[in-house]
Design brief:
The complex is a heterodimer. By secondary structure, chain A is mostly helical. Chain A has one domain: Formate dehydrogenase/DMSO reductase domain (Formate dehydrogenase/DMSO reductase fold). Helices cover 72% and strands 0% of the residues of chain A. In chain A, helix 3 packs across helix 14, helix 5 runs antiparallel to helix 15 and helix 13 runs parallel beside helix 14. Chain B is of the alpha/beta class. Chain B folds into two domains: 230 residues, 2-Layer Sandwich (Alpha-Beta Plaits); 114 residues, no CATH class. In chain B, strand 5 and strand 6 form a beta hairpin. In chain B, helix 4 packs across helix 5. Classes of the chains: A mainly alpha, B alpha/beta. The interface between A and B is large, with 49 and 60 residues.
Chain lengths: 405, 380
């Protein structure tokens, strides 16, 4: 199977090849930037003692959400046996795997001592379980990765052999992954929520809002990906499927907006000392306004997308749908990324306002990791589409070769 | 965590708690460690060196590949020297890769260096080490410094003494903002000179406005005491219930029996979660390789204190563990020209700090967070 799929993913159209070369180039740039960071230390980034987490952790936080969102497709398909989603779900799980690998890459990129990361491996290192939320996070993320690799692998392997996958085998796994997905996002939220030192994060709504925004941004990305797949492959994705996912997106986005209003009300109706971070984020403090353009891009995009998607007629229009999904994705990336992480540190514990600006090296590494995610996802998606379409089958290599060429 | 006693219940002096797994509570002075032992590394180390050397030659690798992910996977299994002895031949080739370049070229010394690096890379968490392992790592560090810099350092690994709980008090009326404490701290604790890392921050505040930290200046360069201002110093408060310790994913930081919150620099992975969790800005990170001019290095060191740090790890105030456990005051206390800083044993009813707590109106910062700092402020 590995050999077949290797053959399959190395063949494709011209567009496909250009896409993969493009991603490889960005990955190489990212690796170069990372080598600079390894050499100089994290001083190569824009982070300081005042703002000690930046772009890496922001992207990590956001991508955990994307990974968790695959569950929105898993549940109806496997558990409720809704045949509609069956085609989309493999794509969704591929996306989850890619997003998780990106998460892990971002965490590793953020570490001061990547050479001693083995201290975190349970059994060999010392794990501060159950006290540290980061220890929990390592466990749940890797567990989720394992689930999301094994289930699709099992199904695809059965299909590859030309057999049907057994429900009794994959249904328990699917149910577990549904619960697990909620878990990874809650645990990641608790990572921040549990810090009494940072009032901006120490907020009971953080966890639920993480879930709502994730279930908006993740499926929005899946819709966009499905649209691309529909355009470039023969893989048949029914409109009905996309409509259903769009429904998930809009409900999650609406809930997310309600929570945003609630948060803003709390911060600005009766502002306390603890609202300073929110002030910094939305209005700037003492002339320091680095995040303003970002957050004021994110909020209108978020509102616009949610409102447009709320109307059935507009949502059914593919052009509007894709546009909305895109802006929603961008808005949530800003809001749940550095719109969440950076203000947590500003002002500092004693009120110092020091701004954060990522360096070129940092941006290079970040882009590199995103390219790696896209690269992995493309390979996974191509293989699973190949198998699902029946092009990739056990002992059908000759046929495959002629078709792929 | 939950059964940890708060400072004030400990006042009477019984220290009921039995030291957990950590080690014998032997209050012995600077453990074996002394530099006198260092010049002759144990036989075993020599044996291993020779064996590895051969493999290294076969390996003919040039680069230092300690960061190699592949090796990591294998190496993780032998964070202890004992495990190290059981290595298979193939792993020894990997070991060769680490020592390589130098071993090929030159003799015993560089081999020994590589050997030390190797064992240091895969040693365990200090908190969980046995006394022998602790002594061994201290010996290695001393020897390593000797090999590299041709200078001897003295490194101790003194454990907490019984019936000691360190506390600190700061007299706001007395502090004039001279910052002698800051420079003494930097010199004593070998902090990175390039990034001008400082554990202590002195906040200059306006008279008549109270404690407005957000309007205070903690980075001033003018003559002090400035007219109409008062000064307040902050550093690590050595909380009795420290949030930074809870969040560390690998237990690289912990609260010692005498209340000091310390870091094992070699176990820290540099995730900076503790930094985010600290409400008092008490922690610092080595964003690049810390550098101290050789002649300024304080050679009187403690494993958990002012020994040289490396790139990408956390560090912080330890109440000068190398001094306080030897019965001296921390450098900041000693350096303060105004007597604003008071340090002592909270469990000793006759200590100055106990007198201050009993007779002054003391307060602590951000008490609402429930971290129980062992650092009080008071005024005359």
């Amino acid at each position: 199977m590995v050999k077949d799929s290797l053959g399959y993913i190395t063949h494709g159209s011209k567009t496909y090849h250009i896409w993969m070369i493009f991603l490889t180039a960005i990955m190489l740039i990212g690796m170069y930037c990372y080598s600079i960071q390894l050499e100089e230390g994290l001083s190569a980034t824009g982070m300081t003692d005042r703002v000690s987490w930046g772009l890496y952790i922001s992207n990590f936080t956001f991508l955990v959400g994307v990974a968790a969102a695959a569950v929105m497709l898993v549940m109806p398909t496997y558990v409720l046996n809704d045949i509609d989603f069956k085609h989309a779900v493999l794509i969704g799980e591929g996306l989850a795997v890619a997003a998780l690998l990106m998460c892990l890459a971002f965490v590793v990129a953020d570490m001061g001592g990547p050479s001693v990361l083995w201290h975190m491996i349970p059994g060999i290192g010392v794990f501060n379980f159950p006290n540290s939320m980061l220890a929990w996070d390592v466990i749940v993320l890797n567990g989720y990765l394992f689930i999301n690799i094994t289930i699709p692998l099992y199904i695809l392997f059965r299909h590859y052999q030309g057999k049907e996958a057994k429900r009794s085998v994959y249904i328990p796994g699917s149910i577990l992954s549904v619960l697990w997905a909620v878990g990874i996002h809650l645990v990641t939220a608790f990572l921040y929520e549990g810090l009494q030192a940072r009032p901006f994060w120490n907020n009971a709504l953080l966890g639920p809002r993480f879930l709502a925004s994730a279930f908006a941004a993740g499926p929005a990305l899946i819709i966009l990906v499905l649209a691309v797949i529909r355009k470039f492959t023969e893989f048949n994705i029914e409109q009905k499927t996309i409509n259903k996912i769009a429904m998930i997106v809009v409900v999650a986005a609406q809930i997310n907006l309600i929570m945003l209003v609630s948060e803003l009300f709390k911060e600005f109706y009766a502002p306390t000392h603890h609202s300073e971070s929110a002030y910094y984020l939305f209005f700037g403090l003492e002339g320091k306004t680095a995040l303003l353009p970002w957050i004021w891009t994110a909020i209108p995009l978020n509102v616009l997308a949610t409102v447009l998607l709320t109307f059935h007629k507009l949502r059914r229009n593919p052009k509007v749908l894709y546009f909305c999904c895109f802006i929603l994705f961008v808005a949530i990336w800003i809001e749940k990324g550095f719109g969440l992480i950076v203000p947590g540190f500003i002002p500092g514990p004693y009120g110092t306002i020091a701004e954060y600006r990522p360096t070129g090296v940092e941006i290079g590494v970040t882009l590199g990791i995103w390219a790696m995610g896209a690269f992995i996802f493309t390979m996974l998606a191509k293989t699973s589409i190949g198998i699902e379409l029946g092009k990739l089958r056990y002992r059908k290599k000759e046929k495959l070769a002629s078709k792929a060429a | 965590m939950s059964e940890k006693k708060k400072w004030f219940t400990l006042d009477l002096g019984f220290n009921k708690k039995v030291p957990t797994a950590s080690s014998c509570g032997c209050g012995k002075t600077s453990g074996g460690c002394g530099s006198h032992e260092a010049p002759s590394p144990s036989k075993n180390e020599h044996a291993m060196t020779a064996e590895e050397f051969d493999k290294a030659v076969e390996g003919t690798m040039v680069d230092e590949t300690r960061k190699d992910g592949f090796q990591q996977v294998f190496d993780v299994k032998m964070d202890r020297r004992t495990a190290f002895r059981k290595l298979t031949a193939s792993l020894l080739v990997g070991a060769g890769a680490v020592q390589t370049s130098c071993s090929v070229i030159a003799g015993e010394e560089s081999k020994e260096k590589a050997q030390i690096d190797w064992e240091e890379q895969f040693k365990g968490n200090y908190k969980l080490m046995t006394q022998e392992e602790r002594d061994a790592t201290v010996d290695r560090l001393v020897r390593s410094y000797q090999l590299r810099k041709k200078e001897n350092i003295k490194m101790s690994a003194t454990d907490a003494s019984k019936d000691v709980l360190f506390g600190y008090a700061f007299n706001i009326s007395k502090c004039q903002g001279y910052m002698d404490c800051v420079s003494a701290c930097v010199e004593e604790n070998n902090q990175d000179r390039n990034s001008q890392m400082q554990y202590i921050r002195i906040h200059e505040m306006k008279d008549g406005e109270g404690f407005k930290f957000n309007e205070a200046d903690d980075n001033y360069y003018h003559e002090v005491p400035a007219e109409g201002h008062f000064y307040m110093g902050t550093q690590c408060f050595h909380c009795d219930d420290p949030p930074c310790v809870d969040v560390c994913p690998v237990q690289a930081t912990w609260r010692e029996e005498d209340g000091l919150v310390v870091i094992d620099y070699d176990w820290c992975i540099g995730c900076r979660y503790c930094m985010a969790a600290c409400p008092y800005d008490g922690r610092r990170f080595n964003w690049s390789k810390p550098e101290v001019p050789e002649e300024e290095v304080n050679k009187n060191q403690h494993y958990l204190g002012n020994r040289m740090r490396k790139k990408g790890v956390m560090e912080k105030c330890t109440f000068c563990i190398q001094r306080s456990r030897a019965g001296k005051d921390p450098a900041c206390v000693e350096a303060c020209p105004t007597g604003a800083r008071i340090f002592g044993n909270l469990l000793d009813p006759d200590s100055t700090i106990r007198w201050v707590l009993a007779n002054k109106k003391v307060f602590r910062l951000k008490e609402d967070l429930g971290t129980e700092p062992k650092f009080w402020y008071f005024m005359d």
